[in-house]
Amino acid sequence: MEGEELTIRKAVSTDIADLIDMDHSYSTDHVWQMGYTVEAEEVSVAFRQVRLPRPMRVEYPRDPDRLADEWTRKAVLLVAEQGGQPIAYLALSESPALSSAWITDLVVVSSHRRQGVATHLIGQVRGWCREQGLSRLFLEMQIKNYPTISLARKLGFVFSGYSDHHYLDQDIAIFFSLEIR
Questions:
Q1: For 15-67, how does the pLDDT look when each residue is reduced to its tens digit (9 = 90+)?
Q2: pTM of the predicted structure, to 2 decimals
Q3: What is the DSSP string of 55-116?
Q4: What is the phi-psi region of residue 147: left when phi exceeds 0, alpha when psi lies from -120 to 50, beta otherwise?
Q5: In the chain, where the domains are located
Q6: What is the C-alpha radius of gyration for the chain, rounded to an integer number of angstroms?
Q7: Are 63 and 52 in contact (CB under 8 A)?
Q8: Tens digits of per-residue pLDDT, 160-180?
């Protein structure tokens, strides 16, 4: 992160319009492809990384405008800012799984991607989870979101499942989790 210091703080109401206005789309040159087979006594699901013939622009799977209504219901909504400007956010929800939390949104503006901003946000939320006595942190993403899949694996998250037709566009969601210590 070049230049000014990165600050991470809880969101306030005046942040929401800026967070909604961020470019939530991303570019990828890889995807995870799902293979699914059913036999008499067995169902097999496998994921494999596939390189695309050219980079693909992917729209965010949720409407960013929903943040205006939902932000106060999040367990935590963190904002990363630099030079007084929001450059990223992370939304955390309580999970239906015992002693765990769920990162539902992790957005970094394109000019600040691959500079450690998301890593800092996840580090902050890990600390929050530890303070709350939670034992597991889940991270949800589209099967096409190779940049976040790579980040999750780099940070020690492990593949924990998937949900077919999870998003409004019918895309598959995959889930990674991390044990909080």
A1: 999 999 999 999 999 999 989 899 989 999 999 999 999 999 999 888 899 88
A2: 0.91
A3: EEEE--SS-GGGHHHHGGGSSEEEEEEETTEEEEEEEEEE-SSTTEEEEEEEEE-GGGTTTT
A4: alpha
A5: 6-25+58-179
A6: 17
A7: no
A8: 999 887 777 888 899 999 999
From residue 22, alpha-carbon distances to 7, 17, 143, 159 in Å are 17, 9, 21, 28
Instruction: Say if residues 101 and 60 touch (Cβ distance below 8 Å).
Output: no
Instruction: Give me the pLDDT at residue 5, please.
Output: 92
- Inter-helix orientation angle 146-154/117-131, to 10°: 50
Task: Read off the amino acid at residue 91.
Answer: A
Yes or no: is domain 6-25+58-179 CATH 3.40.630.30?
A: yes
For 5, the token pair is 């210091």
